[in-house]
Design goal:
Length: about 250
Amino acid sequence: MPSKKILCLFDVDGTLTKPRNKIEPHFEEFIYKKIKPCCLIGIVGGSDMKKIAEQMNGYEVIKKFDYVFAENGLVYFKNGVEVARVSIQKHMGEQKLQKFINYCLGYLAKVYLPVKRGTFIEFRNGMLNISPIGRSCSQSERDDFERYDKVNHVRKDMIEALRKEFPDIGLTYSIGGQISFDVFPDGWDKTYCLQHLEGEGFEEIHFFGDKTDIGGNDHEIFHDSRTIGHKVVDPDDTKMQLIDLLAI
Ligand SMILES: [Mg+2]
């Protein structure tokens, strides 16, 4: 068991759970029974708290983990208590935000795709999630769009158009998953949560994530000098690397 004050900080999707799945019971038990006695544990997910709770078997997760950072840390729980909450509308102001949303709606109205469904812009606390096909599509439509987008660059082209239209708006674009991309203020990636950990006295912060390559949502925090990054391929790999790291 390490004698240092260590935090193991985990991405959720693809790291603690298989993509868009719930955490498996044996892995959950491993985290709470084997890892938690060795060090402090935290989660930093890009999704909102509702989705994190779904994947982690309920809102109890905010009590079971020492730190839970939803939406990259814009929503922050410590020991089961909400500490901070920031929103994109507070940060940007309604006027600027609405100008951006209106342009997106206009752009999407002119995109022709093999199939188009609904929920094209999902407004989250700290980001907009924009999906040209619409988030209410089925799994097979989702798979088809991903293949179509690889050839036709629908998402990439839209991001280029947004950059051109709003050169100084201070927003970052990130293509993730199969059907959408995220838009959030510059710096609001997963490194955002690290400011909350600065006064907590950790000697080492180990971050585990699956999307650590350029463009992936774990890239910035994986490379941040305040963390020791661990790239994983799936929950089984996370488990193996934890056993190695903590010598358990
Ligand atoms: Mg992930």
